[in-house]
Amino acid sequence: MKKSSKSNVHRCICQTCQQHPYSAVAKEHQAINRVVASLDEKNRRRFVGLLALQWGRSGIARLIEVTGISRNTICRGLAEVQRADRATAGRVRKVGGGRLAVEKNSRRS
């Protein structure tokens, strides 16, 4: 059975979590990573974008350490949170993404 990559919870690499793994800050970072691991890619991006907005200056750098998500993804989520002009419900990715369907070659009798 194949494990889903969503179930893997990132371990924070910030200095506080490394030195004091049972502190309140470490517990907060673990909770953030549990929530991030349970979300799909669009909601994960928006969630970390919201956190970056709330944490203010150096929020993006701190979130990179805490969640392991790239700077580009966090900045994209921050832009999506700030630009709440269109609410796209339903699909996570644009229509037409992914591989094209391959026709099956079969012999006919």
Explain how this protein is built.
The chain is mainly α and 109 residues long. The protein has a domain at 8-82. The protein is 51% helix and 0% strand. The longest helix has 15 residues, at 24-38. The radius of gyration is 19 Å and the shape is extended.
H/E series: HHHHH
Number of helices: 5
C-alpha termini separation: 38 Å
Q: Give the C-alpha Rg.
A: 19 Å
How would a crystallographer describe the biggest sheet? Answer: none
Describe the global form: extended
Low-confidence stretches: none
Beta fraction: under 5%
Mean pLDDT: 84
DSSP strand count: 0
Report the helical percentage.
40-55%
Structural class: mainly alpha
Describe the structure concisely for a colleague:
The chain is an all-alpha fold and 109 residues long. The chain has helices at 15-19, 24-38, 41-55, 59-67, 71-82.
List the helices and strands and how they pair.
Layout: H1 15-19, H2 24-38, H3 41-55, H4 59-67, H5 71-82
Helix pairs in contact: 3-4, 3-5
Keywords summarizing the entry:
109 residues; 51% helix; mainly alpha
